[in-house]
Amino acid sequence: MSTLDLTRCTAVQLAELLGTRTVSAREVAQAHLDRIAAVDGDIHAFLHVDAAGALAAADAVDADRAADRPLGPLAGVPLALKDVLTMRDVPTTCGSRILEGWRPPYDATVTRRLREAGIVILGKTNMDEFAMGSSTEHSAYGPTRNPWALDRIPGGSGGGSAAALAAFEAPLAIGTDTGGSIRQPAAVTGTVGVKPTYGAVSRYGLVALASSLDQAGPCARTVLDTAMLHQVIAGHDPMDSTSLTDPVPDVVAAAKSGDISGVRIGLVRELGGEGYQAGVQERFAEAVAVLERLGADVVEVSCPSFEHALAAYYLILPSEASSNLAKFDGIRYGLRVGDDGRRSVEEVMSLTREAGFGAEVKRRIMLGTYALSSGYYDAYYGSAQKVRTLIQRDFTAAFAQADVLISPTAPTTAFRLGEKLDDPLAMYLNDVATIPVNLAGNAAMSLPIGLAAEDGLPVGLQVIAPAMADDRLYRVGAALEQALYDRWGGLLIEEVPAR
Amino acid sequence: MPETAGAITREQVAHLGRLARLSLTEDELDRYSAQLADIVAAVARVTEVATPDVPATSHPMPLQNVFRDDVPRPCLSQEQALAGAPDAEDGRFRVPRILDEE
User: ipTM score of the complex?
Assistant: First the structure.
């Protein structure tokens, strides 16, 4: 196997090699650990690499295979886990100083499902602190760099997971998406990411940012790999009271079909045009033409309330976050500062939170505290919840005319590190096309559709489906991916600069 | 729209900091009063579109109360629960002084 670079294989290819015993899970894990050791100094996708744990998990898969015990389809395939999901006895920081050194005493349900499927967890990936950000620059442990251009952001908050895929450090990754934190990083790194329907994947052990918006989801370099991972992590969990009991749609069959003749695709008028980079608009228009050629019926739809989505989101999210992050009080876990035996518990809490939280987290905690405070609650939080209703109504009307909706995933390609760090509002605008989906709770995917002419950086297309119709994302995504593969003679990600 | 929308004073930021248990520095009070004012001005438009006839949505899925049987199950041991604590004593979390006395 000396000529085959295992890190360039898709998860499906690795599963085939493992299933035929052409390679061992240990060889696959070691190849990826070696790749991480070689390139992660430049990329900084990982906050923690669990080499010993990964090799032990790989050995267990190899032993099961040698004994002909039943194994899941992805057994032995490596994965990068976003550091917002707990993993027993492995550091989980959420990109924050306040959790530095904390080793959770339990696995998140997503982590447990991955382990049960025999998936080999390589380590924990970098992220904006508590998932607040669109660039991974708000990590307390330093930014992740975009493998396409090291002076560019990898998106956020899940920039570590997306960069790990794009740098061939892992074929699979887990992200979480509260306002676009899976989809925007996928778009700017030329990878695939899915935000499943709210409640489709358990939130147990996902350190909460905004509980009514957060959703964990699968990330990979191809649509089929993403579907295979989706199948592993989705499903009802009694440990999460908001977990849906509906059966998981057959996303793998949808990704293998890719037949979209007669599928009605809605172009969302409000998500495009002014404010979107020229190169993003060009690639998007080409992708629409491809979808039409594949037999889809493309119509324009209007969602007028989407223009208020960003405003509603930046009231709802900080409100829920300020409440969720109250648990970081220096008592039960994490950092404690200033406990000299004389200071009161309030003083110690205030000093701990001041020292342990970064600027963006403090900004949003205060914004949420403001929006929820007496005299402002009805006007701000109450109004934002009404906008949420209007956005749901827009989606309902749009899905009466179309089976899926599409838009550019993000208005621009990857911006430069530092470019928007001092301008929170400019940073927030990067999520303008992804946020409506979180507010309504339905499902969406981002997949690569080419490079922008002006900067040579990846552009993503967003496919949006109704709640519990996640399979439609994979059907449309697979069709578009195959057509672009045929045009380019390979995947876009193969164009990423070698390192 | 509340009368003070768009204007957030240094004193208000200090008050928010106290409510949120953040011991803010002088520099942060200056920076956050300007930034929060900009953000609030940008998001305040929601008050214009939310008319009284529109119901509020607090959660994306129409879930009702979720119940399960109250069955004893294994849980974290005392040792596990305390393992991440900054300070523990006699099998309990040790907290800083909670009453105003020496």
Answer: 0.92
